[in-house]
Design a protein that fits this description.
Layout (H helix, E strand, L loop, with lengths): L1 H19 L4 E9 L7 H11 L9 E6 L11 E9 L2
Parallel strand pairs: 1-2
Antiparallel strand pairs: 1-3
């Protein structure tokens, strides 16, 4: 359940950025996973594929950066670092 909520928040952020820039879809995204976020890269990718279906992020190429810094201020978080958008 927790993973779904995290991914839904991330997708909502992608949708917000896409709309803000007048784009239609996300081509690529760079995502940072905190050391304490309870998602490894494989698990993240599985949930992303499911949660992004039917959204502007469906099919986006995702680069995942996994932190090992347990003391980072966002160690429990998932952060959208950047997106590449398309307006087609």
């Amino acid at each position: 359940m927790h993973e779904q909520a995290v991914l839904r928040d991330l997708i909502r952020e992608m949708q917000r950025v896409t709309a803000q820039h007048g784009a239609r879809r996300v081509l690529a995204a760079h995502v940072w996973l905190g050391a304490l976020c309870h998602l490894d890269e494989g698990h993240f990718r599985e949930h992303f594929a499911i949660e992004s279906r039917g959204t502007c992020a469906a099919g986006a190429a995702v680069t995942v950066e996994v932190s090992d810094d347990l003391s980072a201020p966002s160690a429990q978080g998932v952060i959208l670092r950047s997106v590449e958008l398309a307006d087609d």
